[in-house]
Automatic annotation (TrEMBL):
Stretches of the chain forming a coiled coil according to its record: none
Keywords per UniProt: DNA-binding, Transcription, Transcription regulation
Organism from which the protein derives: Shimia marina
Lineage: Bacteria, Pseudomonadati, Pseudomonadota, Alphaproteobacteria, Rhodobacterales
GO MF assignments: DNA binding; DNA-binding transcription factor activity
Domain HTH lysR-type, first and last residues per copy: 2-59
GO cellular component annotations of the record: cytosol
Domain of life: Bacteria
This protein's name: Cyn operon transcriptional activator
Family: Belongs to the LysR transcriptional regulatory family.
Length: 305
């Protein structure tokens, strides 16, 4: 049977089709990834990938192995959860994964309500917009994922809640020249150095569409942002230098706007997030269920997966 590291390497490379990109997503060197893939092939007894200079794709055997590997990942996740429940005793441990836009807008207010019901809840939050979040959900590393809906197109046996539509806020220091423009378009915003969290596919496609949808728009968006981080404390510090326009949610910026250190940029067309919450169907942990029930207050009707 594949060990968890070799299994994770297999999924990263199968998705990325590139050793360099898969290694980046996994947070290891190319050499380490190559070693893990070799372990996966040795442990399975199969040649899983075609390798060449430009890409790395699954062989026929690799394609056939993919659903088997998914089943193994689910079994490992189920084992991990069951052991955690035994260790925990009452299922009062909760692990949530999310991108940086939702930490203060969704996760914090929901968690505050949950801990009123379950004061002894042990909570872990993984904030990361760059990794494939469903992997963590399906493997059992996290119990609930809150993030962009485009991460979930091939999800099976999951429950999905759509979050209330919200606009992203753009700000800059009060003396920033962008405020002289009056109401701005997204083209005005990105004509200045931009600081933001990771711009995944939804945001890039949204920006490209708002910029006209042509090759020039794609080129501009591909160069964004100038400062990228999932740490909004760092991004706010950079915005306060007066050089950068910053995109974030209202709750993240409220104290700095109220203090007059950052000023809201008026927008012609709001930029809307595409956020959902996802958990595996049938999850019965006390902590997971309590968090999910309170999430419903922030969402609309469940989505069939």
């Amino acid at each position: 049977m594949l060990n968890e590291t070799a299994l994770a390497a297999f999924f990263h490379l199968a998705e990325a089709n590139s050793f360099q990109e898969a290694a980046r997503r996994m947070g290891v060197s190319n050499a380490s990834l190559s070693r893990y893939i070799a372990q996966a092939e040795a442990q399975s007894g199969l040649v899983l990938f075609h390798r060449n200079r430009n890409n790395c794709k699954l062989t026929d055997a690799g394609q056939a192995f993919l659903p088997i590997a998914r089943a193994l990942r689910e079994d490992i996740g189920r084992f991990t959860r069951d052991v955690d429940l035994l260790r925990d005793g009452k299922g009062r441990r909760l692990r949530v994964g999310c991108g940086p836009l939702t930490t203060r807008t969704v996760v914090a207010p929901v968690l505050k309500r949950v801990v009123e019901e379950i004061p002894e809840l042990a909570f872990y939050l993984d904030v990361n917009a760059r990794v494939a979040p469903l992997e963590g959900l399906l493997s059992g590393d996290i119990d609930i994922f809150i993030g962009d809906l485009t991460h979930t197109p091939e999800a099976e046996n999951v429950d999905i809640l759509m979050m209330e539509k919200r606009s992203v806020m753009f700000v800059a220091t009060p003396d920033h020249p962008i405020h002289d423009l009056g109401a701005c378009s997204i083209a005005d915003v990105v004509s200045y150095p931009l600081a933001s969290g990771h711009l995944h596919r939804h945001w890039r496609n949204t920006f490209i569409k708002l910029l006209g949808g042509d090759q020039d728009a794609q080129d501009k968006v591909n160069a964004l942002p100038q400062i990228e981080s999932d740490d909004y404390s760092f991004l706010i510090d950079m915005a306060l230098t007066g050089r950068y326009v910053l995109g974030a949610m209202e709750e993240t910026l409220a104290e700095f706007v109220a203090a007059g250190r950052l000023k809201v940029i008026e927008m012609h067309t709001p930029v809307i997030w595409n956020i959902c919450a996802v958990k595996k169907s049938g999850t019965s942990s006390v902590g997971v269920q309590a968090f999910w029930d309170h999430l419903r207050a922030f969402g609309v009707n469940p989505v069939a997966a």
